[in-house]
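[Q] Does anyone have a clean structure-token version of this?
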Amino acid sequence: MRITDVTLDLVELPAQPPFRWRAGLPGSEGPAVGGILRIHTDEGLTGEARTRRGRIVADLVDRRIRPDLIGADPLWRELLWHRLWELDRIEELPIYALGLVDVALWDLAGKAAGLPVHQLLGTFRDAIPAYASTVTFSSVEEYLDVADQCLEAGYKAIKLHAWGDARADAELCQKLRAHVGDDVPLMFDGSAGFDLTDAVYVGRALSEVGYTWYEEPMREFGVTAYRRLAERVDVPLLVAETSDGAHMNVADFITAGTAGYVRTSAQYKGGITGAMRIAHLADSFQLRAEVHGSDIVNAHLCMAIPNTTYYESLVYANPIVREPAVGPDGLVHAPTTPGIGYE
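[A] Here you go.
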């Protein structure tokens, strides 16, 4: 089997449901031009991956990716994954674009085998609990109301995205713990909103009330800053969500002693191949690799990675709307369609 073409079809995407993130970050996106990447073969099989950044990826496909892939065997995923990293050295590919070809190749391989991708990876489980990952709401009272709704809807844990104000965020985190009690796992995502001083302040507040993890409090350019934070707080840090070096940077975070958990995902870690690399790296250090993001690709990863705890399910609004993939029992079940299952 050989690759005969690589195409990127632009598609008009509707606006996301209105929501906001912390101060300084853009919130929900308006209408966008997305893209469907397709890898075509001489045996009629097609692999697919999807992005909200269609125009940027279209340029990369036309200039770099298509010429590099035509004629290659699509089942040589490891070689082609390395080829994309070689192109990255020249192009400085957006981190979300690095893994698109890899996801499409795994989709194609699953279709060729007649199996969902998680079975090709080696299924570890057929269901996983979901946690509710909030957007940014207006007040402590609204967060407490949303938390009640999430628990009633079956979510097993709650992760906060708050305002980016260290003192207000710390107060919110402690009030939520008092509200839900000690038995509900809670996490906090700083969305890279703090410097080291404020990150320590929030981290100590989280430590006092037993938060499960403290995610991306600072930009992930400086491993030294994270090491100093880890020395000053007791709450486990979840690190390396958006670091551009993916598996290479994750190794630095771990060996520097910063990691209580590491992040992995198809979107920010070089596709499925990169995400599994990071999961295995973390496992060798007896660390958990938590999967980032709500989509079907990451659902496959959750089923195949033994050292992960939850599926992340974004809660956009109040009143909340439970993501369709999450059942009333708070579980996400393994996809069953061959390949990724976009269809």
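[Q] Thanks! Anything notable?
[A] Residues 84 and 98 are 7 Å apart (CA to CA).
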